UniProtKB/TrEMBL annotation:
One of its GO terms (molecular function) is RNA binding. GO terms for biological process: phosphorelay signal transduction system. This is ANTAR domain-containing protein. The lineage of its organism: Bacteria, Pseudomonadati, Pseudomonadota, Alphaproteobacteria, Caulobacterales. Residues 122-183 form the ANTAR domain. SUPFAM superfamilies: CheY-like. Residues 2-116 form the Response regulatory domain. It comes from Phenylobacterium montanum. InterPro entries: ANTAR, CheY-like_superfamily, Sig_transdc_resp-reg_antiterm, Sig_transdc_resp-reg_receiver, WH-like_DNA-bd_sf.
Length: 194
């Protein structure tokens, strides 16, 4: 497991590394700030990021959000203290586990395991939501294309769907793509946007 520890305090960073001792194989890289590795995060490819700090500030959270936006990964934050609203801001920035005044080597492993599991669950939920939205959009465009065919040709729904399916098979494209083309073309014919 590759772990990136971000902490300006070497003694506190050592506590994190000590708590990771059980993981095998283990590669720990420690830096003082996110700015040191922000541009190299993809190259370093840590399995998990651990941030330990006195108290997170909004700039750090925004930098974290930007750094992990394109390539999300589990983030654990240990803070010595917190202010109202920071836990919510941390979660919104992509932190999977936010622990205040609880950095003890014996707890690090279990916190990391929970954070990694929670991160995987959230990633799966996001993927499922994205797929559901895409499926819904596909169904909507297929329904619209069927409606156009039914109106223009005076045919039943099953016949309209059969036409779309045949076009999709003949062109080797998904039925939703064929339906989207038909809807767009119909819009052009009616004087809509090109």
């Amino acid at each position: 497991m590759r772990v990136l520890v971000i902490d300006p305090d070497p003694a506190r960073a050592a506590l994190v590394a000590e708590g990771l001792g059980d993981f095998k194989p283990l590669e720990v890289r420690t830096v003082a700030s996110l700015a040191e590795v922000e541009k190299d995060l993809d190259r370093l490819a840590p399995d998990v990021i651990v941030i330990a700090c006195d108290s997170p500030d909004r700039d750090t959270l925004e930098s974290l959000r930007e750094a992990t936006e394109q390539n999300p990964r589990p983030v654990v934050m240990f803070a010595d203290r917190s202010a109202p609203g920071l836990a919510q801001a941390a979660v919104e920035a992509g932190v999977a586990a936010y622990v205040v005044d609880g950095l003890q080597p014996g707890r690090v492993r279990s916190v990391l395991e929970v954070a990694m599991s929670r991160f995987q669950l959230m990633q799966q939920l996001r993927a499922d939501l994205k797929k559901a939205k895409a499926d819904l959009a596909s169904r909507k465009v297929i329904e619209k294309a069927k409606g156009l065919l039914m109106k223009e040709r005076g045919i039943e729904e099953e016949a309209a769907y059969a036409i779309l399916r045949k076009l999709a098979m003949d062109t080797g494209r998904p039925i939703a793509a064929v339906a989207a083309d038909l809807v767009a073309f119909a819009g052009v014919l009616k004087g809509g946007p090109a």
